């Protein structure tokens, strides 16, 4: 499920970072128009886009329970709003 505050392409890249071996997420990524390089990068917890990169770092930290002020601050600096950060928390809590 994609939280409404995240655009589908950003959400699927975060989901790929959180669940890199989930085939369903890879299929969603292809449907969202991600390139093979974008899919591979997201699976490795990175992105070529600075906003997506900040979202991935924050979501992985949220999932691990080690969120730092720096990760949250960077996400805000690159333009993620409070609603998007809450949506990342929702994704990070998925099983």
Describe this structure in words.
The structure is a single chain. This protein starts with 7 loop residues before the first helix and ends with a helix. It is built from six helices and no strands. It has helices at residues 8-18, 23-31, 36-43, 50-64, 69-77, 82-92. Helix 1 packs across helix 3 (36-43) and helix 4 (50-64) packs antiparallel against helix 5 (69-77). The model has no long low-confidence stretch (mean pLDDT 91). The protein is mostly helical and 95 residues long. The chain is globular, with a radius of gyration of 12 Å. Helices cover 66% and strands 0% of the residues.
Helix-and-strand structural type = mainly alpha
Distance between the termini: 12 Å
Using only CA atoms, what is the Rg? 12 Å
> What's the helical proportion of residues?
55-70%
Give the biggest beta sheet: none
Q: What is the number of helices? A: 6
Write down the secondary-structure element order.
Answer: HHHHHH
Rough outline: globular
How much of the residues is beta strand, in percent?
under 5%
| Uncertain ranges | none
The tally of beta strands, per DSSP, is 0
Mean pLDDT: 91
